[in-house]
Amino acid sequence: MKSLILGSVLVVSLLALLVILFKKRIGLAWLTSFGIHLVLAAVGIYIVNYSGLITGAYIPLNPATIGTVSILGLPGVGLLLGLKISLFG
Prior knowledge:
The chain is mostly helical.
C-alpha cells in the first residue's frame, strides 16, 4: 500500500513538472545548460585531484560532490577541499 501511494505521488509530480516545463515554453535549453554545468564540475574536480597542486586531498567523483560543484561553481571545489582537509586532515 505504501509503495502504491509513493508511486502515485511520483507519477503526479512528474506529470506536473512536464506540464510546467512545456506550458512556459522552457523547452530543452535548460537541459543543455545543466549538462554543461555537470561536465564542468566533473572536470574541475578531476583537475584538482590529478594536478598535484594539493597533495593528500582527493575529492571523489560522485553525485553529491558533482552536484555541489555544479550548483556552487568553483567555490564549491574550494568548499569540498576545505571540508576534506579540516575533517580528515
